[in-house]
Amino acid sequence: MASDTEPSNAIKLLHLFVLSTSWGMQVWVTFVAGFVMSRHLPRHTFGSIQRELFPYYFHISSTCAFLSLTLFAMSHPSEQLSQEHKTQVYSPFLTHSPNPFLCSSGWLANCGDPYTVKRSPQAPKLQQARGPGGEI
């Protein structure tokens, strides 16, 4: 049974689920799916698949990072945290020292990726117009 200072088993399980979902997805997308698709699919097909998958990847990653941090912060009272833990927990909410993963994933999901997705279908058309060896 959880005490007043210890998180409940449900919170611990939820935190583990969110963290393992995030890490598992990152490992799969980075080391398995990306390498397999890049070796077995034509370049333009690979690009169009990545163009569709990456917005989901960035949104799920940033959501999992936020939920993991929120669950940790909720289950650990700030009075009991060391200064290092306080810095890690509160840094995403401070404008001067943001959590790099949460901020970069959020930026990519909302700003960088839509810009890239919007313009990336133009590259195959330009390359086909230039012919073989005219890649840009």
Give an overview in words.
The protein has five helices and no strands. The mean pLDDT is about 75. The chain is mainly alpha-helical and about 140 residues long. The chain is elongated, with a radius of gyration of 20 Å. It has helices spanning about 10-40, 45-75, 85-90, 100-120, 120-130. The longest helix has about 35 residues, at about 45-75. The protein has a domain at about 10-25 and about 50-120. This is TMEM205-like domain-containing protein. Keywords: Membrane, Transmembrane, Transmembrane helix. It holds the Pfam family DUF4149. It is found in: Membrane. Its main location: membrane.
Keywords:
single chain, 136 residues, mainly alpha, 5 helices, 0% strand
Write the SSE topology:
Layout: H1 9-40, H2 43-75, H3 83-90, H4 100-119, H5 122-130
Helix pairs in contact: 1-2, 2-4
Pfam families: DUF4149 (PF13664)
Main location: membrane
Transmembrane segments: 13-36
Radius of gyration: 20 Å
Low-confidence spans:
none
* Average residue pLDDT: 75
The computed structural class is mainly alpha
Number of helices: 5
User: Helix proportion of residues, in percent?
Assistant: over 70%
Q: What shape does the CA trace take?
A: elongated
Q: Name the beta content range.
A: under 5%
Along the chain, the helix and strand elements come as HHHHH
Distance between the first and last residues' Cα: 61 Å
Query: What's the main sheet like?
Result: none
**Strand runs, count:** 0
